[in-house]
Amino acid sequence: MTQPGIELQELIAAMEQRRAKVEQGGGPERLKKQKQGGKLTARERIEVLLDPGSFLEMGTFVEHRGGRLMQGVEAPGEGVVTGRGTIDGRQVFVFSQDFTVLGGSLGKMNAAKVTKIMDLAAKTGCPVIGLNDSAGARIQEGVDSLSGYGEIFYRNAIYSGAIPQISAILGPCAGGAVYSPALTDFILMSEGSSYMFITGPEVIKSVTREDVTFDQLGGADVHTRKSGVAHLEYDGDEAVLRGVRDLLGYLPQNAHEKAPALPTNDPATRTTEKLLEIVVPDQRKPYPMHDVIHELVDDGTFLEIQPGWAKNIIVGFARLNGESVGIVANNPRVMAGTLNIDASDKAARFIRTCDCYNIPILTLVDVTGFLPGVAQEHAGIIRHGAKMLYAYAEATVPKITLITRKSYGGAYLAMNSRDMGADVVYAWPTAAVAVMGAEGAANIVYRREIQQSENPDATRAQKIAEYKDAFDNPYVAASKGYIDDVIPMEDTRRILIQTFEMLRDKEEARPYKKHGNIPL
Ligand SMILES: CC(=O)SCCNC(=O)CCNC(=O)[C@H](O)C(C)(C)COP(=O)(O)OP(=O)(O)OC[C@H]1O[C@@H](n2cnc3c(N)ncnc32)[C@H](O)[C@@H]1OP(=O)(O)O
Predict the structure, then answer these.
(1) Nearest to residue 430, comparing CAs of 468, 474, 485?
(2) Residue 3, pLDDT above cutoff 80
(3) Which terminal residue of the chain, N or C, has fewer Cβ atoms less than 10 Å from its own Cβ?
(4) How far is the CA of 103 from the centre of ligand 1 (A)?
(5) CB of 100 within 8 A of CB of 31?
(6) pLDDT by residue (tens digit) across 419-428?
(7) What top-tier enzyme class does this entry carry (predicted)?
(8) How far, rounded to the nearest angstrom, does the alpha carbon of residue 456 sit from its chain's CA centroid?
């Protein structure tokens, strides 16, 4: 005769035994190997990412249904740990691929665990964070594993802009697998231990005869400096996971909400005198735009996005009086701040990200124009530059433009002029708005006069001076209402904060459409 109490204990023990087996992943040997080189296990990563004790696991006992080639193969937890938790008290959903189980490869049921939490995230309006460390499609499951990817990609796309999706790349991410992170809002990579590529070094060698290592092909350096695929690079797993927490602080839970405000001790009325030392009036001399940003924002804290790629434009998140803002700024120190293809792509993408998630945009303008050159024209600068124009016009969040120095030509428009939809445009006394710089303008407009002059150099100099007098200042544009005010540099922080406060409840309607057709 069985005693009821003992039976219950057996059931509990059986559950615990099963759970312990799942939690062991690929077993002690593989877990030990995983930790070589400072990497964390899938479960440790979740612990570091989330608030202590907040993780609630889902799909713990899911098993593969992998068909003939998977018979007898054990895959504890199906190679991925999934569930919900909180970050700074806010709910998020997370999947963490477990490389110790069949290389974290993705089969049909592994994908089902991931799509389950993606769907829950969408239903509850919360961000999804993917911790990627996987050998890609599970070869033994054939087309079923490709279908699993399809189910994830589909959700990445349809939930895009509805809930924030963040991808941390902490190991291999190869083949078609790269397209899930690529469809998310942000990609963060760990230096030296993660890589992303479509076809690996061996295939490349056989097709193109190029010799390349994993890291040279698709390491964090490559993707944060050359390709622009990834947004942020960190040293090791823990730093990446802290980076995810940091980034989420600037984002809302979903497209219906605003990002959380963070109390600050930095006074809203703090004067910004340092700007008078940073910004040089001489239009030809560069100055550090990063310092301008640090001086304006709360506590000098700026989370720059894609800092290593297309450095001629600066984008990132900061706070003004506690409220999250996205900043887009020309960088006069790199390529004289001109806009090229990569800068246009980087800015357009960032503007759209801010707009999806109700983050107001501050644009700091110091730009001579689009980068001239055959290479840029032939690579489609027209198509890429158009993305910036489109993104600014499309964005309905509060938009303030501040012209810090020069703003010329098509780039004046691409940097969100009044006509492109800026709600308020300010300029500093150092600003100049014109179709082009005085030298170029004088040479075109007064060419005949200069050529026919007895002293062409003197005439050219005189015409340049005349043109500068007429246009190299903010007052012509201000007199026509293109600039709302020319403001003292030292009062800029206060004015920006007050203006964003004024725009806080702004609403802007757009005509009905299925979706716009941004030039891609
Ligand atoms: C749509 C797509 O994703 S297409 C891409 C398909 N994926 C691939 O082509 C990658 C194939 N895998 C690899 O090239 C390598 O495993 C690498 C480079 C990712 C990692 O190499 P290593 O760190 O040396 O790990 P290793 O090769 O030992 O793999 C670890 C384990 O995962 C298994 N594994 C690796 N890739 C896969 C896979 N795609 N499917 C199933 N199991 C796999 C290995 O058999 C090994 O199992 P074991 O622990 O029982 O021995």
Answers:
(1) 474
(2) no
(3) N
(4) 5
(5) yes
(6) 999 999 999 9
(7) ligase
(8) 50
